[in-house]
Structures are given as structure tokens and as C-alpha cells.
Amino acid sequence: MCxxxxxxxxxxxxxxxxxxxxxxxxxxxxxxxxxNRAGEITYTHVQGLTYEVVITTYTKASALADRPWLxxxxxxxxxxxxxxxxxxxPIVVMPGDIQKNVYRGTHTYGGPGIYxxxxxxxxxNEGVLNMxxxxxxxxxxxxxxxxxxxxxxxxxxxxxxPATENACLNQTWIxxxxxxxxxxxxxxxxxxxxxxxxxxxxxxxIYPDEVSAASDVFSIDEATGDVTWNTPQIAGEYNxxxxxxxxxxxxxxxxKVGEVTRDLQIDVQLCDNQPPEIAAMGxxxxxxxxxxxxxxxxxxxxxxxxxxxxxxxxxxxxxxxATFASVGAGNGVFSWSPECAEVRAQPYQVVFxxxxxxxxxPLVDLETRQITVISPPVTQLVVDPVGYDMxxxxxxxx
Length: 398
What we know:
Blueprint: H1 14-26, H2 29-32, E1 36-47, E2 50-60, E3 69-73, E4 82-86, E5 92-94, E6 98-108, E7 113-121, E8 139-147, E9 158-159, E10 167-168, E11 173-175, E12 179-180, E13 186-192, E14 217-220, E15 227-230, E16 236-250, E17 253-269, E18 277-278, E19 284-287, E20 292-299, E21 306-312, H3 313-316, E22 323-328, E23 331-336, E24 348-356, E25 364-374, E26 379-386, E27 389-395
């Protein structure tokens, strides 16, 4: 697994490390276990060198441990290196005993650079199978905020699909973070080791399919972000990390302009259930000003009921959003009428989710579809010779 190394990375703040050490020493083990299910750090450009940073974590709602605040290191050497960000209210409790926590802060940097945004939260759950000493290892997440004047201002991706999918032995598990880039940058996806002390990769980390000698495969689609485990062989808890990198063309060359990593927990259990199946769909395109409508079908091999839902930038992050409605058991309709404001080079990603009902451990299937919005052609094109030149006139579509 490749690791991207950047030159001139700002060194970490000694104060931040000292404060985190105090937390580890003072907190007893039962208070340290956070039961984090997932987490990521995202950011939005405000103005100039000022950015708003959002920490999002998904934790076990019934756990005794709770975090009304989290420490964040901003990654620069000037000003306040370590901030205590308080949790926003109200707290959202989701199905499956999952609590969504949001922490928000604003920071102004001194100039261009590559700034690692890092959060450490003691500790990971005991007995995570794909690392050693997990109970003594912090849950750490990190994103890269890159200020590059040549590339222009950048907003990180927003992850629209919570990491809540369950896993059963010998059944395919799938997750997609549904990353939306508001700037329309090129996105690539990869698997990286989880992070621990100091935000560094955990040295004893192995990928889930390396725990068992069986021929299971844990992989990611570099273009869509679909993470698939076919199939879990040993029950227990696993931690994985998905890196989403943003690339932008600068001077004819793709340049990295940002990075967000989601760390998530997979709890594999022994259960008598098979996941539903969504009928495969290919990628498609639509002209701005026209409509795109199609059905999404899902079924369940056990005969269970199926609920359908959809997430993606086209549904929530654009001026003229799409809609998705369930019209019957295992049947949904997607409809979108984008306008010129939605035209961009990169496609919009929509993640459709089918989840079975009536099971103690519900399972899901995902289908990811890329939709490209194309600018409509010009009309009334007229070409007239004028001496040695040609006069071209047309009526633009509006």
C-alpha cells in the first residue's frame, strides 16, 4: 500500500502531544473506550486564509463514554495549535444505537502550505482483530488541508453516507462514503492503515482480509469509492480507513489539492441473514434543461422486506436537486432536471441503498451510479464567409 509523502510538512506541536499524553495518563480505561464507529474531518474555505473545520464522529449511543468536546490540531506552527472544540446540539441519535457527533471550529493560517488536521481520541475498543493492543491505541483521524495559490481555494469533500452498515459472517459487506466535492475536483479512493498515536499509521495494522488464511478479499474501487469485503471469515471487530484524494488540473497537470480519510469500524457477527440485491445500473448522462428519470429495483433472497434510499450531491448539494421516492416494495424512482448551474466536467455520484427489514442485524446492498450533466448544444448556428474570414453566429441555450 503506497503512502504519499509530502516535502516540507509542518512539524507537530509539542503542546498538542503533551496534552494528549496527559489525557491518556489521567483517564481510566473505562472512560477512554469511546466506541467510535467512524469519523472524519472536513473543511470549507471561508475567505482568504480562513477555513471552517468540522469533525464528525459516529459513536455507540448507549456507551458510557461520551465526548462533549474533542481536541483538534490545526497543523500549523503559528497561533493556537490545539483547540478544544465543543459538540453541537442537538445530538442526533440514529437507528442501530448510533450517535452522530459534530464539532466545528474556524482557523486562520499564516500562508500557503500543507496542514494535517488531526484528532486523537482515547481509545479504540479492546480486541480489534486487525491490530494489536487496540485498547491502548487511540482512535485517530486526519485530513490534509492544502493552501496552494496556483490551484486556487479548495473545499474538502463532504461524506454524505454515514458508516453504519452491519456485517455477517460469509456474507458480502459493502460501504461507500458518498463523497461529494463542491468544487467538482477529480476524486480517487484508496485503503490506508488506521492511525494511532500522533496521527501516525498504526505499525501493527493489517487489512481485514489478512486476518484469516481464507481467500476473502477486502478491496476498494478507486473511481467510485465502493469498499467491498467478499466475504468476512472471522467474527469480531475490525477497523479500516478510506482515503479520498482531490485532484485539480493546474497548468495541464493534475495536482493534489486536498485529502479526507474516514476511519470506520466493521462489526462482523454470526447471523442468519443474506443481504438484499439491487439490480445493476450503468452510468448515464443528461443534458442541462432536460429530465432524467429511472427506476431502481431491489429484492431479497430471504424474502424479507426491502427499504430503498439514496444519497449524493445531486440530491442535496446543488441548486436544482434530484428526488428519490419509494413507490412500492423494492422499487424506487429517481428523477432529476438539472440546469446549467449543475454542468461540470466530473460526474455526480448517487449511492442507492437497499436494506432488509425484520432482522436483528439488517444488511444492505449498495449500487453506485455516476451521472454526468452536459451543457446543451448551441442552436441556430450560422456560418457566413466574410472575405478571407468566416463569421459564426449562434443562439445559446439558456
